[in-house]
Structures are given as structure tokens and as C-alpha cells.
Design a protein that fits this description.
mainly alpha
Length: 506
């Protein structure tokens, strides 16, 4: 068992560990969804590939859909909720933090045992006469002041990591509990929102929990076929979801750092100050330096303001916001702008918005969540340079790894090949632009989709029927399998942020 632990910690790349995790969770989710019966099973039964696609989409928090959401039964919606929790970045990261704490503790124990054994001598070990008293006397005689300080420092770091885990769990639970309560109260006091659920046969509690989890994890699934378009007049509900979107993704590092600072002020515990000043030693990538966190806040809200202003200018009198008053249009524009980064919940039909907004949305979907416009200090990245020194052995692998744009280009080309017949026969729906939007949305784990319309067919098909699922639902099985791969790689793209450096454009 110890040798297996050493193998996982020091030999196995974290990329492969997380890949196995997401693949296994997706497979288990598919089996459970397959066993459970959807609504209207007599008239419709999703294909196995579509059910697996939906399981992968929920686990990778991508919200790409090939099946209408209202097809799923209440029990299946609960399963999708669990998959979104297990695949959410905050949950995965805190589990990794617990693994890191266990690793430090294990390593610290092994180091102490190795040190004691080396001091006692090989002869005593072979005779098996080492007792606890021997260890205590031997170590007490050997320890100097530096060793005591080192041991204390390691214990303090381990304790700080444990505190960080508690803080994140509280952050996670409080936001979900408060979010569910707020949505439930809104549904009680707003008859129009409650009527939507009644007409669609959705339970209020299931909707509240499902929507809160999906919003916080930035998955983008909503139990209604129309996503949030059916609630475009419920501005209060949209305003309740916007903070949850930010707290679960782009604003998570600044909020986490601020929460640790507040707890440090209130409790006077040294562990919280240690977390703020020694973030490099913690090795938790979501705990950013103070300056980086401040710049991230400015960048996030800067992107939102730019999108909001452009959306209002281009779409104010368009078909997308038709029927809304001034206040509802402002809230809808803000909600759409916030969701374009990684959430994917939508109050408008993307197929009818202006090309300028669509291009901006594609750029926002491509950007990683912690993109910072202003540069950070070089000394804040000194810890990363040390890690790069340790990775020289993997230099050959790094040289052949492509950049993110290269992978996107490859995926788009492959899908254009698999869907070449539809590209020729149905060019308005199966346009290269629509495929690009779908691929980047899947790679960014966003979930925006251009959809499919029978009215855009050049050669109308009498059997064609519009459905409330993503454009991917009309793709061939090969195209869907490629997009499944895109969602997995997109969920793990954090391991390839520096890929493609071997390619020099001169």
C-alpha cells in the first residue's frame, strides 16, 4: 500500500488522475441514467450515445445537450445534479486539497521514520529492538533548534491546509443552502415563475436545487427545455443567479482570499495569515496573490461591462429582447453577459443575435476563467519557475504538445469532415460558424449553442421537427463522439495552459 501511494503521488501525472476520475464518474452516471426511466418512455427513449453524452456534459459542467431537458424524470434530474456537483471545479479542487493534505502528512511521517531509523543504526533495526522509548530518547538527543523549527513549520503548514479545506467546504455549503432558499422563496412569492414549473411538471425543490448547483458549478443546465428564456421576464430570479455564477467561477479566488482574511481578523488564528502570505507553499491554484486577485476582479467586471454595453447597443430593439420592458432588457443583457464566460445559461436565442455579439461571446468562451488583463509581478510567479525546473525530464512531451488554438482547429476540421454531408445539404444550419461556436463552447465548458431550425433548411423536410436541444443533437454519432472528447479535454485544459511553446512564429 505505501508503494502504491508513492506511485500515485510522485509518478502519476495529476492530468491522468483527473481524467480517470471524470471518465469513471461519467460512465457511472450513464449507467444510472440508463437504468432510470425518463418521462414519456412509451413515445421516446434516448439513444445510449445521447445518454452518455448528457452524462459527460453534466460531469464536465459543459451543458451541451442532445436530449431535451424535460424528457428527464425527477429522479434523473437528481442524478444530473449529483454529476454536476462531482464535476464542479470547487468540489474537485477541495478533494485535491484533501489529497494534498494527506500526502504532506504521509510524507512527513515517512521522513520522521527514515530519520529515526538512520540514527538508530541498521544493526538495531535488523534485531527488531527499536521501541517507542528508544525513538523518543534518540530523537530528543539529536534534535537541534533548526530541526524543531522545521518540524513546527511543516506541522503549521499541514494545519493551515486543513483549515483551508474547512473554509472551502463552508463556502461551498453556505452558497448552495442560501441559493436554494432564495430561489424557493422567489418561486413562492412570484406566481408567474411558479406557473412555469407547474405547466412543465417540475417540482419546486428539485428545480431550486438543480438550478443552484448548475449555476454555482457554471454548468448551465436548467430543467426547462428553453433554458432561462422562459424566465426572461422574471428579472428577480436572474438577479439571484448572477452572484452564484460569479462566486462559483471567475470570482472564486478573490472571494476565497477575502473570506480567509475576514476569518483571520475575527479568529486571530495564525493559520489564516499563513495561507494569505504563503500561498505558493499551499499549492492550491485557486488561492491567488493579493495583487493578482485585485486585478482579476477588475478584469472580470471589465469584460462584463464591455459585453453589457455592446449587447445593449446592438440588441436593444432586436427580436431577441422583444416583449421586454426597459428594466427587463437591462437585467437580461447583464445576465447574458455574465453567462458568456463559462456558465452557458441563456435568456435569448443565440441564432438571432448580431454577429458582433456572437464573435465577442466566442472570445469570452475561449478565455480561461482566471484571465487577467494586467500583468502580475514577476516575483509572484517565482514559485512556478521552480516547478518548471523539476519538469525537465518531461521536456520531450512538452515540445510535442499543441496549444489550445491548435486543438480547437483540429477538432473543427474533424467535425467538418464527419458532418460534410450536412454541410452540403443544409448549409444554413450546418455552417462552419455554427460548428465553431459549438466546439469552442464545448471546449470552454460553457454550453452556448446555436440550435437547429427546420425553417432554415434549403430543402424542407416534412419529417423535420424542431426540438429544444443543442445543435449537437443533429450531428452524426461520430461528430457527437468527437465533441465528447472536446468536453473532456476542455475540462482538463488547465493542464495545457502553456502548451505549444515549441512552435515559434518568426
Amino acid at each position: 500500500m505505501p508503494s502504491f501511494h508513492r506511485f500515485l503521488v510522485f509518478r502519476v501525472n495529476p492530468l491522468w488522475i483527473q481524467l480517470c476520475y471524470f471518465v469513471c464518474v461519467s460512465a457511472l452516471g450513464f449507467v444510472v441514467l440508463k437504468v432510470l426511466k425518463p418521462k414519456g418512455v412509451e413515445s421516446f427513449m434516448p439513444k445510449d450515445l445521447d445518454m452518455y453524452f448528457m452524462s459527460v456534459s453534466a460531469t464536465t459542467v459543459s451543458s451541451m445537450s442532445t436530449v431535451e431537458m424535460e424528457v428527464f424524470s425527477n429522479t434523473q434530474l437528481i442524478v444530473l445534479t449529483i454529476l454536476m456537483v462531482l464535476g464542479g471545479e470547487v468540489f474537485v479542487s477541495v478533494m485535491g486539497l484533501h489529497w494534498l493534505s494527506f500526502t504532506f502528512k504521509k510524507q512527513q511521517t515517512e521522513n520522521k521514520v527514515d530519520s529515526v531509523c538512520s540514527d538508530l543504526g541498521s544493526s538495531e533495526i535488523e534485531l527488531g529492538v527499536v521501541s517507542l522509548n528508544d525513538v523518543e530518547s534518540k530523537t530528543s538527543g539529536k534534535e537541534d533548534r533548526y530541526a524543531i523549527n522545521t518540524s513546527f513549520s511543516e506541522d503549521f503548514r499541514l494545519n493551515s491546509i486543513r483549515y483551508l479545506g474547512y473554509v472551502i467546504w463552508c463556502y461551498f455549503l453556505v452558497i448552495h443552502v442560501v441559493g436554494v432558499q432564495l430561489i424557493s422563496v422567489y418561486l413562492i412569492f412570484v406566481p408567474s415563475a411558479r406557473k412555469v414549473l407547474k405547466n412543465k411538471g417540475l417540482h419546486k425543490l428539485t428545480f431550486s436545487v438543480f438550478t443552484t448547483v448548475s449555476t454555482f458549478t457554471n454548468c448551465g443546465f436548467i430543467p426547462t427545455n428553453e433554458n432561462m428564456m422562459v424566465f426572461n421576464k422574471n428579472s428577480g430570479l436572474l438577479l439571484l443567479l448572477i452572484p452564484q455564477i460569479l462566486l462559483g467561477n471567475t470570482m472564486y479566488p478573490p472571494c476565497l482570499r477575502f473570506l480567509i482574511w475576514v476569518l483571520g481578523r475575527l479568529t486571530k488564528r495564525g493559520e489564516f495569515n499563513y495561507l494569505l502570505k504563503n500561498f505558493h507553499h499551499i499549492r492550491y491554484k485557486h488561492l491567488l496573490p493579493f495583487r493578482h486577485s485585485c486585478l482579476l476582479v477588475v478584469t472580470v467586471f471589465g469584460f462584463i461591462v464591455v459585453q453589457f454595453l455592446l449587447f445593449c447597443c446592438m440588441e436593444w430593439n432586436s427580436e431577441a429582447l422583444k416583449g421586454l420592458n426597459t428594466y427587463e432588457k437591462l437585467v437580461a443583457a447583464l445576465f447574458q453577459s455574465v453567462n458568456s464566460r463559462h456558465s452557458g445559461e441563456s435568456v435569448v436565442d443565440l441564432s438571432i443575435i448580431s454577429p458582433a455579439i456572437l464573435v465577442l461571446s466566442v472570445i469570452m468562451m475561449y478565455l480561461p476563467p482566471y484571465t487577467t488583463f494586467l500583468p502580475t509581478k514577476n516575483d509572484e510567479r517565482s514559485g512556478r519557475s521552480r516547478e518548471k525546473e523539476k519538469r525537465r525530464k518531461g521536456q520531450l512531451v512538452e515540445n510535442i504538445v499543441f496549444s489550445q488554438l491548435s486543438y480547437l482547429a483540429v477538432f473543427i476540421i474533424l467535425i467538418c469532415i464527419t458532418e460534410r454531408k450536412q454541410l452540403k445539404d443544409d448549409p444554413l444550419n450546418f455552417s462552419v460558424v455554427n460548428i465553431v461556436v459549438e466546439v469552442i463552447s464545448a471546449y470552454g465548458n460553457v454550453g452556448f449553442s446555436m440550435g437547429y431550425s427546420c425553417e432554415r433548411q434549403l430543402n424542407p423536410d416534412a419529417s423535420c421537427k424542431d426540438a429544444w436541444y443543442g445543435f449537437t443533437g443533429r450531428w452524426s454519432d461520430k461528430g457527437k463522439m468527437i465533441l465528447i472528447l472536446v468536453m473532456f479535454l476542455g475540462r482538463l485544459k488547465k493542464f495545457n495552459m502553456e502548451g505549444g511553446k515549441a512552435w515559434k512564429l518568426l
